Every structure is written in C-alpha cells, then in structure tokens.
Amino acid sequence: MKTATSRDNKETVVNGVNVGELFKTVDAVKKTASIAKFRFRAGNTWFDGGHNRTSIRDFYGAGAEDTSRKTPFILDADEPKVLLGGDRGPNPVEYVLTALAGCLTSSLVYHAAARGITLDEVESRLEGDLDLRGFLGISDEVRNGYENIRVTFKIKADATEEQLKELVQLAQKRSPVFDTLSRPVPVSVELNNNTS
Amino acid sequence: MKTATSRDNKETVVNGVNVGELFKTVDAVKKTASIAKFRFRAGNTWFDGGHNRTSIRDFYGAGAEDTSRKTPFILDADEPKVLLGGDRGPNPVEYVLTALAGCLTSSLVYHAAARGITLDEVESRLEGDLDLRGFLGISDEVRNGYENIRVTFKIKADATEEQLKELVQLAQKRSPVFDTLSRPVPVSVELNNNTS
Prior knowledge:
Two copies of one chain form a homodimer. Chain A is α+β, with helices and mostly antiparallel strands. Chain A is built from five helices and ten strands. A three-stranded antiparallel sheet of chain A has the order 3-4-7, with no helix packed on it. A two-stranded antiparallel ribbon of chain A has the order 1-2. In chain A, strand 1 and strand 2 (17-18) form a beta hairpin. At the A-B interface, strand 2, helix 2, strand 3, strand 4 and strand 7 of A face strand 2, helix 2, strand 3, strand 4 and strand 7 of B. Strand 9 (146-157) of chain A pairs parallel with strand 10 of chain B, so a sheet runs across the interface.
C-alpha cells in the first residue's frame, strides 16, 4: 500500500481490485476503527450420516448489517465412501483447505494490487495430513486435526522472482485464514434447545 | 463406541451411519495404525479480484490413493461487495465456519450412532468475529484471523438433555476441524514456479 501513483488514481483497477476503493477503505478504517469489525455467520442442518448443509448469507460489517445477498450460498458437506459417507460434498477438512486456498490467494491478489503488481495467473496446490486415530478416540498421542498443511503457489506476473516470493510471504502474513489456522482461536460450542 | 449391542450387530445403521462398518474400522485401525493416515488435497485457480475456485477430488487414505470420485467438487470463493469483491461465492472466512459446522455435526452424528442414540434433527448456528485492521496492516494489536467463534446446537433426539449435552461435548472433543482451529497447525507456504 505504498504505491503513491495508485493512491493518486482513485479509478485504478489492478487484478480486478479497485485500488482507489481499497485505499479509501484503509483511510476510513484509520479514522474509525470500528468499521473494521466484522461478524460472519453460518447455519447448518444435518440430513443423514455425514451429509449436512451449510447456508451462508447475511453478516455484520462496516458498521451495519449487510443484507445485500439476495439468496444464500448453499454448501453441502459429506464424507467419502471410505469414511462411511455418501460423498455428496467435500468433507469438512477439505473445506478447511478450500478456506485457506481462497484466503491466501485473495490476500496475495489484493496486496499485489495495492503495490501495483499485475498478476496474470495464480494457482496453488494444498495438502494436509490427518491421522484418524484422534477422531476415532484410539490414540491420545495424535491430534484430531491437521498435523500440518503445505501450500505451493505458482504465479505468472509482470514481476521478478524476488517480488513474487515477497508477495507470497505477504499473503501469508496478512491472510485471516492462515492466522486462524496457525494460531489458536477460542471456539465455544453449546447446546441450546430453547432458541427459535 | 461402547454399545455392546451395536457392536454385535454388523448391519445396524443409526443416524445413517453403518455402525457395524464403523466398529470394523475402529478394530482395523487398532491393528494397523497406518490405515488411519489420510492426506487431503485441494487445487485453486484465481480468476479476478477476490474470485477464485477450489477443486477437490482425490485423496490418500486407508493405505491407498482414493480415486473413487469421478468428478471434482468445485467451490467458488469471492468477497462481498463491501469488501470490494463480486460476491460470486462465500468468502474464505465463511468457508472456515462451513468446515467447523460440518465437522462438529458429523462428529456428533457418528459418535451418537456409536452410542446407539437416534437423532431426529441437528441444527447449528455459528458466528465469528474478525477485525479487518489485521488484514489491512493497520494495527499490530489485532490478529488477522477470527478473534473467536461461537457455535450453538439445537438437537431433537430420543435422549435426555444430559445425554445431548454430553454428545455436544464429545463432538467438540473429537472433531478434527475444532482441533484444527483451536490448536496451532503448522502451515508452510511457498512459491514454486518450476512445478508442472
């Protein structure tokens, strides 16, 4: 966000990101920190076995309820056959990789735009290792979740290898999902059968 | 997994979960720990701005490559308009809530099945708080990712409130995504423009 040229031109769009709007957002947040506070939401309904459906629509952000989405996004999760499911959707830990891939990519693209670096292609591959003995309650020595995750980016851009490596580092440094995975998040889970 | 009755009946299906197969899996993993090792994968391609697409298909597990999925699952991510995107899919942090909802639900359903508890309805609502000052690089005092996530379950089942509360606790204790979020996962991110 140090490209004076981009900052001067409020109409510049780089990598599909309106850089003028991005800098306006940064300036607005610097003045009023509360508009940076977002609350995202999801609702889930179970169907059968490993099959359940998440619905995503409204959220709170920029100081107001955002109801601009006319229909919800619907996402089915299930387990593959080998995990006794019907394979009607990716499984939940595959959704974790989806979240991470999307977030690192967007972070990279937005921050490249802010620096005036035009990207041609961005691809990534992700792998995560998980030992099911945790979930099955067989061993206390292995954790239930991912033991580690590896992400490899392949990028074509009008930039040097050095600049691209910096961008990948910056994406990682700024990505909300990278932070969510690599540092503990307090998660509360409760039963409340009295809600509507 | 202590229900002797269910363990004896290899054909019992509870909550859509084949409990006989589940116990066979547990027994097999106890004998050969390596079959519990899974490696999940995702590939992502960027399109424009906040819009990118994740493709999910093959994985390694139960001692072999699993190629049973004939077509990949395709998941689009984008940012809503207020975050300068085109809103062509949930955003990456909404995918995190999707992963958590699906995983807690499946964990609850599978473990209820193992205990012989029949579930009628399972619904959940999730909320996560995120301060964008981290992503925007404006403040080092706020983290980039979720500050906290809250999950509320509503369950109808042939069980007491006490049993349901125990189930919710067990779901949390065993869920791979709950663990992935609440304890740090090592994530490596690198540029490799030499891969095919």
